[in-house]
Amino acid sequence: MKIMITAxxxxxxxxxxxxxxxxxxPMSYTVNGVAYDGVTxxxxxxxxxxxxxxxxxxxxxxxxxxxxAYQAKEYFKPILDKGYDVIHIGFTKALSGTYDQMCMAxxxxxxxxxxxxxxxxxxxxxxxxxxxxxxxxxxxxxxxASYEELVExxxxxxxxxxxxxxxxxxxxxxxxxxxxxxxxxxxxALQIKPILYINKVGKLVPISKxxxxxxxxxxxxxxxxxxxxxxxxxxxxxxxxxxAYDEAKILEKALIDKYGFKNTVIVDVGPIIGTHVGxxxxxxxxLSVDKAExxxxxxxxxx
Length: 303
Hints:
Blueprint lengths: L2 E6 L13 E4 L3 E3 L2 E3 L8 H10 L8 E2 L4 H13 L3 E6 L7 H15 L5 E5 L4 H16 L4 H11 L3 E6 L3 H6 L5 H9 L2 E7 L5 E8 L1 H15 L9 E5 L3 H15 L4 E5 L2 H7 L4 E6 L9 H6 L1
Parallel strand pairs: 1-2, 1-6, 6-7, 11-12
Antiparallel strand pairs: 3-4, 3-5, 8-9, 8-13, 9-10, 11-13
Helix pairs in contact: 2-3, 4-5
């Protein structure tokens, strides 16, 4: 039995964690009117985030495109042709139509490849929260788990891979339509740093506002301590950053010093997610006992 785990570029999956069991589908983006496909053409993190910083209006911001069903089929076909069954860990449908396009592609391909298995699992996540799910499923695949066991495990992880984020630039939230002009400019003037998390339905939701970068970091560590599974179950803990490597390194050291983690990684936020969070974002990615904060109004409305 041959199994391939796939995910979109929204997973921000680091190249040095890739194995022969993982394929990441590229996604295109546009910066200053120039299109990049993420494969034959790309920007360095510094170039990309400088473009974000220099954007004056919404029209100046980088733009992204979701993967269509047609594109998804073209990505899946070479894998199926090689005899692989596929488990696709999809970007949360709460933030994009890509998940639905993947499901459409899988349904059509199942008819074309009746002897192959294709399962689309919604990660209920974005960025390396989605990527961490991919990593754990790959680890289980390497241990000899069956296709059905891997799908079940992925569904379980979708409710337990967690991410807590802080945004450095409130004006970027305004430019992307996620904050009012008043909130954005007042927030920057007062150095307000919002803390957001990805909840159990896959939405990125603000749960706290802190005055100063230092207090935001302290509060994020408190959320981490409150929500994380036991240390021995954390096989990989990640710190993500959007062109803020020095701060990410400090956070990684804080985690190692406090909890003694043996396996940590610092992950760059790529252009697809970076378009929406802007330069300076920092995040913790880990296994959580629960992905539901008491003050999450999005979950209240969902229920």
